[in-house]
Amino acid sequence: MRPSVILLLFALSLSAGGCCSVARFFCGADRTPWVSVDYATPELAVKTLLEALRRDEPEIVYLSLSDDYRNRLGLDAAVVSLAWTKLREQNPGLHVAGYAEVPAATHHDADHATIELSIEGRALTVDVVRQLKREVRFRRPNGTPAEPGQRLTTLVGIAEVAADDTDEVSTVRLVPWTFRHDGLDSVPLAAIEFVGIEQQWKIDRLRLAAAP
Fold first, then answer.
1. HEC-encoded secondary structure of 113-153
2. Helices (H), 56-147
3. Residue 71 binned pLDDT confidence (cut-offs 50, 70, 90)
4. What is the pTM of this model?
């Protein structure tokens, strides 16, 4: 992980002030039940990231980043735990970042938004992007889940919304697509749990303002 990112996340760890934050620092990572892991909106995506920092959950931190951001940072699923371990050793108390307040996002277009956080009087700008994916989720005969899918850059040619003759009613049409089910000859309809297009908001950049 780049040094600038390490310093940035360390700054996040100082987001909560007062005696309460001191107690949290010495208590270590929060082990109470997760509130949620949700990427449905920009605000929920940022809250999920901060919650993962607070609870010392490297996999959720990794999942909260956009595909492009992971590539720019040189991260993949195989090394993220090692990078997180080194980060925790260099910056104890990083988990308190999860107590920062998350305001409403500013939307620039359908796929991009920004959230401005205040970290000990310094502005932290979080760029968030919408990622699209079409997916089929089903259960194999042995009960294990399968989630074959495909990342999308646009819905054009994939889905359309057509207004019906009836007022205030529209029809959503999805084009058929092929999905793999390795090791199985077929997937019965009863085994399918979800089929459709999902959107998820992911963290695409963190920018911390210089100290005054």
1. EEEEEEECCEEEEEEEEEEEEEEEEEECCCCCEECCEEEEC
2. 58-64, 67-73, 80-90
3. confident
4. 0.71
